Amino acid sequence: MTKTPNKAGRGLAVKLLGAGACGTLLAGAGTAAALATPAPDAPKETAASGTFDVDQITNLTPYTWNFNPTMSSKGDLFQVVPTQTVAPGQTATWSMIPAQKGDKFLWWTFTDDQGVLHGVCAQDLQDDTVATYADDMAGPSDSTVFHMVGDPDGVARHVDAVWNTPATVSIDASKDPSAAAQIVNSELPRVPTDQISWTPNPDATPTYTYTDQIRATSTVANYSSAPATIDKGQETTKGDTTSLGEEVTAEVSSKAFGVAAKDAASFTHDQEWGTSDSVSVNIDTEIDSNQVGWIDKVVTTAHLTGHLVFTTPEGTTFDITNVTISKGDLINPNDGTPSGIAFSPDEEPIVGPPAKN
Amino acid sequence: MNIRKTAIIGTGIAMVAGLGAASIGVAAASPGAKRAQATAPGQITVINAATDPQGAVDALKLYENATDRSFTPTGTPSYSQTKWGVVTDMDGNPAPVVIGNSKTKQSVTERLEVKHETSSSWSLGGSIETTMGFDLAEVVDAELSVKFTANHTWESSSADTQGIWVTALPGKAVWIEASTSTASYTGNFEFTSGGARYEVDNVTITQPASPTTDAMAVTNYRVMEANSKTAGVPADTTGGLTTLNALPRLGAYIAAGH
């Protein structure tokens, strides 16, 4: 069992404590069933506002941890509840009620790509320190694949869980977009650009999709006696994204696209994937009396699929396959005037008198 | 013959922020600020904006330059539509009224240009922006557009404009009214500043948005018309553009619901 350097000598004593104590063997079918069960006993926060001392464990392993309420101590223990999901690079934070410290344990667990269950355990102690442990659940002692060490920031009760050897983690974004998005969101912002690459699939060709017709302008209801006109000008400077999952942050999307666009441009010479182009279009339409009018648009979007590879400062390489970059507004599928947006006017009769102000 | 005149109204997209259930104004200093400044590395300050809006504002002043920051919505946006009202600029001045020339029987045409200005101010007395020094909604907008309305990521347009041309026939006064769709969403901010961690919960942001259209299309307009007599315009007017404030009878007519 591994301890934080600032809490030497606590490990063996901790191991003798109750069922949730760090080091207790909980692997096997029973544990798997327990982990799959929803957590009615998830920890609750007792204070809505205030400033509290916190404990922190930064996840420098290649895997996402989940807080395990079944293995953790029960009750209203926290001023700030523990972070429930901790992706690589993220930091778990919590603050335990001082009177509860001493014999309570927190567990996060994760399964590696070999199917082996691991646990990260923390115990708040009454002297305001924290003992932390890296555990291979099936084994009787400390983890052989990761260890705990004080974070270089020197902040009290801030510990890192560090993977022992460089590792490569592969994720198929088409099969597990949520995992891909989570990894990229948490990791990519701190990865230097020169450690990021995106390569189109060998047989990839751009594909194009078209949005539904959506309204591009305001509606104008013309209650006057003379025709009215609505016009629209649009100058677009970029319109790109990188599809890695449902909720990739804008920062990540932009950073990944910046890298991918260069590779895509060299791959498809007739396709502009850059982010600094601009195009300006103008359109207007007349609206007769007692009509409501507007301008619709249909946006063409180009897609190209490849795989994204990046290496974190800790040496973990993530290889994420089936990452699609997409670009709207400016693409030009038919070698025509690059616009990517088709505008069309629309109009219909006004129904009823104007609503009161 | 028609006469065309152009009025450019900087009808910016106003953003509104509220903390908790109520909108807020901001004082210069507060206990919340003292608490926020006292937070040290290894500590976290948790603020419930619903019960401590002042403390929340003071903490959020740190957000713009914070690291490891996030805004996590705790629900889906709720959309609503503002009441119809005369189009105004960012200073609250109404757009001009266009009046036909009764003397020469000429029509007069006006163009109202609407610009999408994402950097426009908070609308509640400007209190939040003035005090915070930045536009909170704009800072989180990119993230929100990804999470709420993915189609907005296709619209990183820098210079969208739209204009509305309206014509007043002789004997008529014409003006433009607007109604805007807004979205309100509540969520929690988390960020690190000065080595300390902050969590500001239950922050509600309201800004112009629509579930189905891009930012330029969230405001609907209508072209309204009244007889010159109803508008209080002299019978022998030569027409043109005039301010609504110069036509108190028309103002009263509009205020009374036409």
Describe the structure.
The complex is a heterodimer of chains A (357) and B (258). Chain A has helices spanning 11-15, 29-36, 177-187, 250-267, and strands at 50-53, 55-60, 65-67, 78-80, 85-86, 91-96, 106-111, 117-124, 130-136, 146-150, 158-163, 168-172, 196-200, 207-210, 214-215, 220-222, 228-236, 240-243, 279-287, 291-311, 317-328, 341-349. Chain A is mainly beta and 357 residues long. Chain A folds into two domains: 5-164, no CATH class; 170-349, no CATH class. In chain A, a hairpin with a 7-residue loop joins strand 10 and strand 11 (158-163). Chain A is elongated and about 85 Å long. With 258 residues, chain B is an alpha+beta fold. Chain B has one domain (2-255). Helices cover 18% and strands 39% of the residues of chain B. Chain B has six helices and 14 strands. In chain B, strands 2, 3, 4, 5, 6, 7, 8, 11, 12, 13 and 14 form an eleven-stranded mixed beta sheet that branches. A three-stranded mixed beta sheet of chain B has the order 1-9-10, with no helix packed on it. In chain B, helix 1 (31-38) packs across helix 2. The interface between A and B is large, with 67 and 67 residues. Strand 17 of chain A pairs antiparallel with strand 10 (161-168) of chain B, so a sheet runs across the interface.
